[in-house]
Amino acid sequence: MKISILVLLFLIVLGLIFIRRPTLQESTIDITTLTLFKEGLKGVNIQLDELGYHSFSSDGKYFLFTGIKNKDTIPTKVYLLNLVTEKLKLLPGFMFGDFIDDHIVSTIDGNDLVLYNTESGKENKISTNNDLLFSGFLSMDGSLYVINSLTGIKAYNLETNTIESVSNKQYDGAYAWFSDNKRMLGFKQNNNKAFEAGYERDLGIWDIKTKNFTPLKVKGIDSNLIRSTFWIIPDKIARINTGWDDGSHDYILNIETYEVKDIGETSGALMGGMKHDINRGLFAVVNSNQTLDKPSATVYKGMEKISSSNLPENYIRENIQIVNENTLLYIRKHLGEDFIIDENAFVKLDVGNGSETVLKILPLQAYGIVSLSSDYKTWVVTAKNQFFTGKLE
């Protein structure tokens, strides 16, 4: 679960981690009229060789994008565009996690973790002390930022600019904030060795302020190698991801009743084939692994499977977005002879009947990223150093 420097430099892996209940707003901005999308990077005097991760803020005010300029001393770049004023700002360092909070962007700049406030422009800098950071999560009231690291769980107070240790074990983790801004769903390292995977972990709830951990005695989750926890419905329904290395198995848990739904093997969906939408309580899985079960797409609402279909084989599907309970967007690549990619496309899927509609053909060798506006109507796809935009009917 460590975040490698190589992966971060190339900016192609999304954290897929949702931590706060954002405030959705109906977008009234036609982004196709904005210079960045109308004229491209040249129109805003930016030179990049490759675009990476990008995302709209859930309040509809901002668009964040990353990229690489190969010959620069610091090749990775993070830009924040105000969609109302078109003001564009270069942020320090490279992305740490996804842009999932309206008012905070997290980056790593040298030996500092930087929390940039989109409204005030203030930068809170937290020294990493050369610690390896795995993930970070902002409380719903914006007061605490909890970090999972090689040396345990840390809690940074944005108001007092102080940091405290919540735990000191490498395999402890706190991932999903409760709405009380005190507790987090996560796990605690126990004393059972798991060979190359380190130590086993117990699922439970951390009280960040008292530093106490309360285990959840849940039956039906067969793996003790818990890797992460995410809300599907905050405070109630969670996704529990387990596994080690490139293995992945998922469960959905009702933490009030301890009911468990075994989603099954999800290693074929690790490359951007899983997505949460906590505003609507949705969780989507697109399995592209050609060697396991047949490729498939499934959407859950809470713990209920509401739509599912098998998909044509010999395709890689990645970087999905949820439009609604029955519609997904993603990048689809066809594997031709000798597993060479001979088609790269942005497609829309009707999950109910499994039909895929090509919305845009992309350059063959380009790594595509998809983002969807807060009103679920406008999409942006990048390939190499180009933006493509469109609207859904």
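The record above closes out task 2.4. Task 2.5 opens with a second protein, given below.
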Amino acid sequence: MKALIYTIAIDSPRETHHQLMAKILINSIIRSSFSGEVLAFTNARHRLYECGRRRVREISLDFEGENARDVESFAKTFKYRARAYMNAKRYDRVMFVDCDCLFLANPASLFASEADLMYSEETWSSLKGDWHRGYLTDEEMQAPHSPGINSGVWWVRGECYDELMIEWEGVKSGIERQQ
């Protein structure tokens, strides 16, 4: 199975904490013996790995001259915009992982399901709670209890990735137009 894990390490000006966390995440993936590819999107002035790492690719995004609020806003929407920088159809599975995560074991086992999309539920919260309800319709708000969804770790079948990300962007854009 050909798999890709990507993360986003976009820091506000003069900060580097997301880049450091991404490096720790990537090191944990490498040490787990994961045989797939890893992609890190950063706005670092320097590469995360000056000498590179096998199966790890870094894409540097330039925010020179941007203010912190604009950089932070861009970073929040980049999960679905990253599709412009990759060919997801080359992979059986594409996984997004927030840079503040770690793998203690090989993540390949997470790809075992035949589902098109897998995500983590937050059983302690509600989909209708403050953190999650931003994109629910009035009808969905009346539905029975559903747990919240954590958008920090998920994977999608490579052939479905672009379609899902376009839909995600459409939902986000539709909400912004309503506000």
